[in-house]
Amino acid sequence: MKKVEFKNQLKAASELIKNGDFFIVTAHERPDGDALGSMLALGHGLKEVGKEFILYSGDELPKGLSFMPGTSMLTSNIPEKLTNDFVLVLLDCHEPERPGDMGQELFKKAASVLILDHHLGEGPCDGEERTCISIIDPSKCATAQICFELFKELSWPISKEMASCIYTAVLTDTGGFRYSNTKEDTFELAKELVRLGANPYEIALSCFETKPLSKLKLLGLALETLEVHFNGLLSIMTLTPQMFELCGSKESETDDFVSYARAVDTVEVAALIKETKPGLVSVSLRSKRFVNVAEMASHFGGGGHFNAAGFKVEGNPKEIKRQVIALAGTYLNKDSYE
Ligand SMILES: [Mn+2]
After folding, report:
1. Which residues lie near ion ligand 1 (Cβ < 5 Å)?
2. Which of 81, 259, 302, 337 is the most exposed place for a label (fewest CB within 10 A)?
3. Handedness of CA 257, 98, 140, 168 (dihedral sign)
4. How many A from CA of 31 to the centre of ligand 1?
């Protein structure tokens, strides 16, 4: 997104917020630190200026993110008699179905729509007659960075709570300032957030060093399944419903497992193949440098970023694994598959 266009869209978005009275704010399902951080930061801001709003998430709050200030504002209930007099704010995703069951309905009913996202892809605003503003900027390290810039455009004061939510989003979406989306302006943003009251040590402890034992036990089982293909260029880890049951752990606890597969020295592409319920398979893909895993995921109806993406399909996990290996092979320029 060009700078001028970004600035113009930001202005339009701030007008939409100033003029709106009632907002339904949501993000992609199985929300991560950026999805929740963006929602909560916006919630704090809307509350401060006296706007009515709902922060909707159909999922249970992931335990590891429950430290974020303002989680009591989240709800999984949308009033049944919903007038269409609301602004839908879609965060950290741009497809109306990404928030889960309610997504499409909210998108249909909304009087106007605002989308803030940093994933690759086009928003649904083309051809819309109502106000539909989408700011999709993959150059941003996190959606919360766009939120922060929007708050500045609105001249909202940024509280310690808002700063902490945004810092959490930035820290988690950059993998602790390690991923390729970490740039000069990421550190500038982080510096400003710390100045505004975010506590880097406490947030880092909460994000990375408060794992439930069940999660580490499950990670142990997952690591047992680690295998490599194409001379070590592709690594794959697998999780079955039985493993979840054995460890008493939840799907939300596996969000960073794929990074262990990616950490193998020879690896370019890593995949975590996870059968959460019998027949329901979700796959996380990561790459280090040259493979666009968002494009890989799009072959299965998914999407994401250049170096981090995923998809969810129904089917046999063994068959899906075979397909992932075959597809990865075409990206890793191999003549034959193992
Ligand atoms: Mn994000």
Report:
1. 34, 92, 143, 173
2. 81
3. negative
4. 9
C-alpha–C-alpha distance, residues 145 and 123, integer Å = 18
Please state the separation of Cα 265 from the chain's center in Å. 26
Tens-place pLDDT, residues 103-144? 999 999 999 999 999 999 999 999 999 999 999 999 999 999
Q: What is the pLDDT of residue 334?
A: 54
Flag whether the pTM goes above 0.70: yes
Residue pair 175/258 in contact (Cβ under 8 Å)? The answer is no
Residue 143, CA distances (Å) to 30, 130, 148, 152, 245 in order: 16, 23, 9, 15, 34
CA atoms within 13 A on the CB side of 280: 4
pLDDT at 337 over 70: no
Taking the centre of ligand 1 as the mean of its atom positions, its distance from the CA of residue 336, in whole angstroms, is 35
pLDDT digits (tens, 9 = 90+) for 184-212: 999 999 999 999 999 999 999 999 999 99
Domains and CATH numbers, the chain: 3-208 (3.90.1640.10), 213-331 (3.10.310.30)
Query: What residue type is assigned to position 162 of the chain?
Result: M
Instruction: Give the tokens for residue 128.
Output: 């819309």
Phi, psi of 134 (to 5 degrees): -125, 125
